[in-house]
C-alpha cells in the first residue's frame, strides 16, 4: 500500500520505493468540479516531504489517474513533463487495490459533496 489517509487532519500522503530507498510525498488532489461528470480522473500533486535541514523547495510531480481503469489518464492533448511521466508510471505501478479504493472513496465523496451543495435551480440545468 502506497497511500495513507489521515482522517483526523484530512491529509493524504504517499510512500514510494525507489531503488531500495523510501520516498515520502504529501499529496494534494484536484477533481473535475462538474457534479454530473463521471470522468473518474483525479489529479495528484505530490511534493516530497522535506527534512528539517532541507531548504530547497521542490516542484511537485503531477499524476493524473483514471480511477475506473486503475491506470494513468491517457490524454494526448495534454502536455506532460517527461519527469512527471516517469514518476507517474512508477507511482501507479506501486498502487494496489487498497490505494485505488482510497482514491475511489475520495473521488465519490467529492462528487457527492458538490452535488449536495448545488442549489435546486443548478441541479435542473
Structural description of this entry:
The model has no long low-confidence stretch (mean pLDDT 87). A 6-stranded antiparallel β-sheet has the order 1-2-3-4-5-6. The N and C termini lie far apart (41 Å). The chain is globular. The chain has one domain (3-124). It has helices at 82-94, 97-117, 120-124, and strands at residues 3-6, 11-18, 21-31, 41-48, 61-66, 71-72. The protein has 125 residues and is of the alpha+beta class. 31% of the residues lie in helices and 31% in strands.
SSE order and pairing:
Elements lengths: L2 E4 L4 E8 L2 E11 L9 E8 L12 E6 L4 E2 L9 H13 L2 H21 L2 H5 L1
Antiparallel strand pairs: 1-2, 2-3, 3-4, 4-5, 5-6
- Helix amount: 25-40%
Beta-strand content bin? 25-35%
Which strand order do you get reading across the main beta sheet?
A: 1-2-3-4-5-6
Largest β sheet strand count, sense and barrel closure: 6 strands, antiparallel
Radius of gyration: 16 Å
Distance between the termini: 41 Å
Q: Please tally the helical runs, counting DSSP H or I stretches of 4 or more residues.
A: 3
Q: How many distinct beta strands?
A: 6
The number of domains: 1
The backbone outline, from C-alpha atoms, is: globular
Are there runs of 5+ residues with pLDDT below 50, and where? none
Structural class: alpha+beta
Q: From N to C, what is the helix and strand string?
A: EEEEEEHHH
Mean pLDDT: 87
Amino acid at each position: 500500500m502506497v497511500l495513507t489517509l489521515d482522517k483526523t487532519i484530512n491529509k493524504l500522503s504517499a510512500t514510494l520505493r525507489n531503488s531500495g530507498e523510501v520516498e515520502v510525498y504529501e499529496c494534494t488532489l484536484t477533481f473535475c468540479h462538474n457534479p454530473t461528470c463521471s470522468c473518474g480522473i483525479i489529479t495528484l500533486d505530490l511534493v516530497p516531504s522535506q527534512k528539517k535541514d532541507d531548504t530547497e523547495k521542490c516542484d511537485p510531480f503531477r499524476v493524473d489517474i483514471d480511477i475506473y481503469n486503475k491506470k494513468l489518464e491517457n490524454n494526448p492533448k495534454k502536455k506532460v513533463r517527461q519527469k512527471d511521466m516517469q514518476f507517474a508510471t512508477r507511482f501507479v505501478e506501486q498502487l494496489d487495490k487498497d490505494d485505488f479504493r482510497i482514491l475511489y472513496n475520495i473521488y465519490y465523496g467529492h462528487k457527492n459533496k458538490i452535488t449536495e451543495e448545488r442549489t435546486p435551480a443548478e441541479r435542473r440545468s
